[in-house]
Design goal:
The structure holds two protein chains of two kinds.
Chain A: E1 2-8, H1 15-30, E2 33-40, E3 43-45, H2 50-55, E4 58-63, E5 77-80, H3 82-87, H4 89-98, H5 105-119, H6 122-152, H7 163-176, H8 178-191, H9 196-208, H10 212-233, H11 243-282, H12 285-301, H13 306-318, H14 326-348, H15 355-369, H16 377-382, H17 384-404, E6 408-409, H18 416-419, E7 425-426, H19 428-449
Parallel strand pairs in A: 1-2, 1-4, 4-5
Antiparallel strand pairs in A: 2-3, 6-7
Helix pairs in contact in A: 6-7, 6-8, 6-13, 8-9, 8-10, 9-10, 9-11, 10-11, 12-13, 12-14, 12-17, 13-14, 14-15, 14-17, 14-19, 17-19
Chain B: E1 12-13, H1 21-34, H2 41-54, E2 58-60, E3 63-64, E4 67-70, E5 77-87, E6 97-106, H3 111-124, H4 127-135, H5 139-145
Parallel strand pairs in B: 1-5, 3-6, 4-6
Antiparallel strand pairs in B: 2-3, 5-6
Helix pairs in contact in B: 1-2, 4-5
The chains are: A alpha/beta, B alpha/beta.
Chain lengths: 459, 146
């Protein structure tokens, strides 16, 4: 077992170090590994690293000062005074190893998501910024459109002014903003606020020219880099620099945008976009099922990482035209499976998971149902070679089934909570069946692959 | 900095006269003052007693390490004293203390001294070090123990 500890006393001259030494000696005697960070008058020494935290089974904080505990989220933490650590370090160590982790999967998942966000770089970061700003528009638009149909029937748009039509039109408008918002925030990510104007205008032009999602991606990138370029090369005298953000940059960059979009990119990108739509619409039979398998594997492979996001962005792109799509349905279903499969596995194969994992399994149900694939990461991190293939298998099955049953989805997010709104998903029963079968497949594969946990109490 | 540099023949006593906690602190501070390491006895004593108020520095195992950080300290230094009879120091284990390390640290201290002090504190936790300290009769024996 590996323990990490922090010792700290008010003057930080003697007790901090005595406690550290006492813990180290006791750990050695008991046959455990320990790393003790001392926060004394010399500052923090032997600082606990990310790597240490990953390997740690428990945390001991022996301090009479305030020690920041935020980095120990998810680990069992025992707190004691410095004198306790000096007097009876063995008891403290045994207590720590028996302590239950504050299993807060939710907190851990939000930390993982934040870390993923921070680790994004370059082009990927810009595209993901755009996508993340766009998603709420698509969700609001998609659900309101579905509700409009629910209230006003399938010809709701003919009864102008009726309640159903008002909801429908509002949704439609929110939906139509997704393309400009995507382009605008890609540009924003690249060149900050001045990127917004050419980005939004470029996105709106892409929409108008029929260049769709792909057009918006390009427009956002071109807008962002154009502004960055202009900022670098236009040098105004100091007295006039205030004009850059309000006059020079917006006018010039938007002008460039208009010319590039209309005269250069509009046509070719529209053809690509149309070709893709046509291909997607005609996608049937075995090729559709195969695509479902591929998307399913991508969704599960890195659980919220770049590959998952690529599949997800592709799914979102297919509903950009305003129609529910099979691909979006397969993507969301496959993304829900990993946490669900793991949650189920902790129930059917209890002996193969640690107490902490079984506890975390309970929260994984909710994360899975909410389409937060990242909920699987803590399990995968502990045993990647067995967990990742299992969840990929389940997600692939779900993706294939969802395609096979012809399920289609109108919204890009929301998990189970949006499915019962009428018209959000077609073939609701089979959709849920696809998800359930995939989760069962994951759980079974994992139960077979995973080794029983060694009984850690028999030390 | 070597541990031995923190100690000096001038600041070591193998036969403390004190019989209680207040006396032993005074006796140790006297040694420090005579060696010219502190400018103001009372000022430094205040710092040491303030530290004792938080909880006793009698860490058990017969050892006490009263210490203080004060502007009255010229240079980081340690006094070592041994009491044959043992002195009640409100130690954590309730046993009398025999080995005393009075540590004086100036308000602005460099890391070199603090690091050496932390190393001494660590060594004191080891049984074999303490045993040698109990047996030590001379400065050389004493340094040898570390």
């Amino acid at each position: 077992m590996k323990i990490v500890a922090v010792t700290s006393c008010p003057t930080g001259i003697a007790h901090t170090y005595m406690a550290a030494e006492a813990l180290q000696m006791a750990a050695k005697e008991l046959g455990h590994e320990i790393k003790v960070e001392t926060q004394g008058s010399v500052g923090a020494e032997n600082v606990i690293t990310e790597e240490d935290l990953r390997q740690a089974d428990a945390v001991i904080i022996a301090a009479d000062t305030n020690v920041d505990k935020s980095r120990f989220t998810g680990l069992p933490v025992i707190e004691a005074s410095v004198s306790e650590a000096i007097k009876d370090p063995k008891t403290l160590i045994n207590k720590a190893l028996k302590a239950k982790p504050k299993a807060d999967l939710m907190q851990e998942v939000s930390r993982i998501k934040a870390e993923e966000k921070e680790s994004r770089k370059g082009l990927y970061k810009h595209l993901m910024t755009g996508v993340s700003y766009m998603i709420p528009f698509v969700v609001a638009g998609g659900i309101l459109i579905a509700l409009g149909f629910a209230f006003g029937g399938i010809y709701v748009y003919e009864n102008v002014g009726s309640f159903g039509e008002i909801i429908f039109s509002t949704g439609k408008l929110a939906f139509s903003l997704m393309v400009p918002v995507l382009a605008g925030y890609i540009a924003y990510s690249i060149s900050d606020r001045p990127g917004l104007v050419p980005g939004f205008v470029g996105g709106a032009l892409a929409d108008k020219l029929g260049a769709g999602f792909i057009g918006a991606l390009l427009a956002g990138l071109i807008a962002g880099y154009t502004v960055a370029f202009l900022k670098k090369y236009i040098k105004l005298p100091k007295s006039m620099q205030g004009l850059m953000p309000v006059l020079v940059l917006p006018v010039l960059s938007t002008l460039v945008m208009g010319i590039v979009m209309v005269l250069v990119l509009g046509g070719p990108v529209k053809s690509i976009n149309d070709a893709m739509s046509a291909w997607l619409n005609n996608l049937q039979g075995s090729s559709a099922v195969f695509l479902g398998v591929v998307l399913g594997c991508m969704m599960a492979f890195d659980m919220g990482g770049p590959i998952n996001k690529a599949a997800y962005a592709f799914g979102t792109a297919t509903i950009a035209a305003g129609q529910p799509t099979h691909i979006m349905a397969a993507v969301m279903a496959a993304g829900m499976v990993p946490p669900l499969g793991l949650a189920l596995a902790t129930v059917i194969a209890k002996n193969k998971f640690t107490a902490a994992e079984i506890e975390a399994g309970k929260a994984a149900w909710v994360l899975g149902l909410s389409f937060i694939t990242e909920g699987a990461i803590p399990f995968a991190a502990a045993d990647p070679l067995r967990v990742i293939p299992s969840i990929m298998a389940g997600s692939a099955v779900t993706g294939a089934l969802s395609m096979l049953f012809g399920c289609a989805l109108a919204v890009p997010h929301g998990g189970i909570w949006v499915l019962f709104i009428p018209n959000v998903v077609t073939n609701l029963f089979f959709y849920i069946l696809s998800i359930a079968i995939g989760a069962i497949v994951s759980a079974l594969v994992l139960s077979i692959l995973k080794k029983p946990v060694e009984n850690s109490s028999s030390l | 900095m070597e541990i031995r540099d923190m100690f000096s023949k001038e600041r070591i006593s193998f036969d403390l006269k004190a019989t209680n906690k207040a006396q032993v602190i005074d006796e140790l501070i006297d040694i420090l003052y005579k060696d010219g390491k502190i400018t103001d006895r009372e000022e430094f004593k205040k710092a040491v007693l303030k530290r004792e108020e938080e909880f006793s520095t009698g860490i058990g195992m017969g050892i006490a390490i009263p210490h203080g950080k004060s502007t009255a300290v010229k240079e980081a230094s340690i006094v070592f004293g041994k009491s044959k009879k043992g002195i009640d120091f409100n130690s954590m284990d309730g046993e009398p203390a025999h080995l005393f390390f009075l540590i004086a640290v100036p308000e602005e201290s460099d890391d070199v001294h603090l690091k050496a002090l932390s190393e001494i504190s660590r060594r004191l936790m080891h049984d074999e070090v303490r045993e040698k300290l109990y047996k030590a009769q001379s400065f050389e024996d004493f340094i040898e123990a570390f």
